[in-house]
Design goal:
Low-confidence stretches: 13-26
Distance between the termini: 38 Å
Strand order of the largest sheet: 3-4-5-6-7-8-9-10
Mean pLDDT: 91
Largest sheet: 8 strands, parallel
Radius of gyration: 19 Å
Length: 355
């Protein structure tokens, strides 16, 4: 799919994509003083109305991240008496040939290609315990000209350092706020539970709630496959004082339920449902789930992304066309890809930007 075709599918003409805002973008409302915080500047949300914002991607992960991810996932499934998952379901896809995460020139081209395919902004939903090299991400963003929002947080039990278990919620919250300040983060996430949510993961979620109240940053979660702890994650965050509209419960495309019971429950409470592994050969399973949620009137609560190590634009060029073919309206697709993600990320800062 060409850039023009992808832009037309989300309700933008190729010419309008070069403008700072479009007339249709006026429908998206934001609080006074709200910004979207990227690595190099704070944007007014209206400035990013010229394309899609991909809410959950990764541009830098540790060399051994995939191996650790798959080992932890396999251990959880074995403990539950479940068969081993295929490789794609066990984590981000492996890379054949040169790895963009190890070569800033290749990553720069990946981001530039995503921009050509209709992306206006991309969220790197990683943080230190996932092995992210933030300076690498900064260079790729600067060289490509693609605004990147950096995540902050602690990932999930298999990736925690030993200190996480020892610290109390208040100490963890202070560490999270410091991480946000030092890294100029624009969102918390991804913040995870692996399988049955552990006591330490609950403590981290409560600390994330405290840190949210101190910063006002929104929260991206990672649910165990297939979304076992989704509702409990939202319960913990709400109990900590987080408004549901500041939360996206992630990886719910993996929860294949034709009745979309959990998905609807999350939407009714006002949170976002994340379909964030979209754009590959295996994502046709999610199309009926999305269509059921659209038919139920929950278009305002959906977010799409690819959680990819390459091919960041494929949500636009591969998944969105499948939804259109299934009957999704152009205006609805634009709302999800352009407006919902900006509404989710936009926040009124409680702390000054450090740099």
């Amino acid at each position: 799919m060409t850039r023009r075709e992808a832009l037309e599918l989300i309700g933008l003409s190729a010419a309008a994509a070069a403008l700072p805002a479009t007339s249709s973008a006026q429908a998206a409302a934001f609080p006074k003083g709200a910004v979207i915080r990227t690595l190099f500047k704070d944007y007014a949300p209206e400035e990013l109305a010229n394309g899609a914002t991909l809410f959950h991607e990764h541009m830098s992960l540790a060399v051994d991240f995939n191996d650790r991810f798959r080992a932890a996932a396999a251990a959880a499934r074995t403990a539950n008496g479940l068969p081993t998952l295929p490789a794609r379901a066990g984590g981000p896809p492996g890379v054949q040939g040169p790895d963009p995460m190890r070569d800033v020139s290749l990553m720069t081209e990946e981001l530039a290609r995503a921009k050509r395919e209709g992306a206006a902004c991309i969220v790197d939903a990683g943080h230190p315990d996932m092995g992210r090299d933030l300076e690498f991400v900064r260079q790729a963003s600067m060289k490509s000209g693609v605004p990147v929002v950096a995540g902050a947080g602690f990932y999930a039990q298999p990736f925690y350092t030993p200190e996480i278990a020892k610290l109390n919620e208040e100490d963890l919250a202070r560490a999270l706020v410091k991480q946000c300040d030092d890294d100029v983060a624009g969102v918390f996430g991804e913040i995870g539970s692996w399988d049955e949510i552990t006591a330490t993961e609950r403590k981290v979620f409560r600390a994330i709630g405290r840190a949210h109240l101190a910063t006002n940053l929104s929260i991206i979660t990672h649910t165990g496959i297939p979304g076992k702890s989704a509702l409990e994650q939202l319960d913990i965050l709400e109990d900590a004082g987080v408004k549901p509209e500041r939360v996206v419960i992630g990886h719910l495309g993996n929860l294949v339920d034709p009745q979309v019971y959990v998905h609807k429950a999350i939407c009714r409470r006002g949170a976002f449902v994340g379909f964030d592994r979209q754009g590959g050969n295996g994502d046709a399973t999610q199309v009926p789930l999305v269509m059921a949620l659209l038919e139920a009137g929950f278009a305002d609560n959906l977010l799409f992304s690819a959680d990819a190590s390459s091919g960041y634009g494929k949500t636009l060029t591969a998944f969105v066309p499948k939804l259109k073919a299934a009957g999704a309206d152009d205006a609805v697709l634009r709302k999800i890809m352009v407006d919902n993600s900006r509404r989710f990320l936009a926040f009124v800062p409680k702390r000054p930007r450090k740099r």
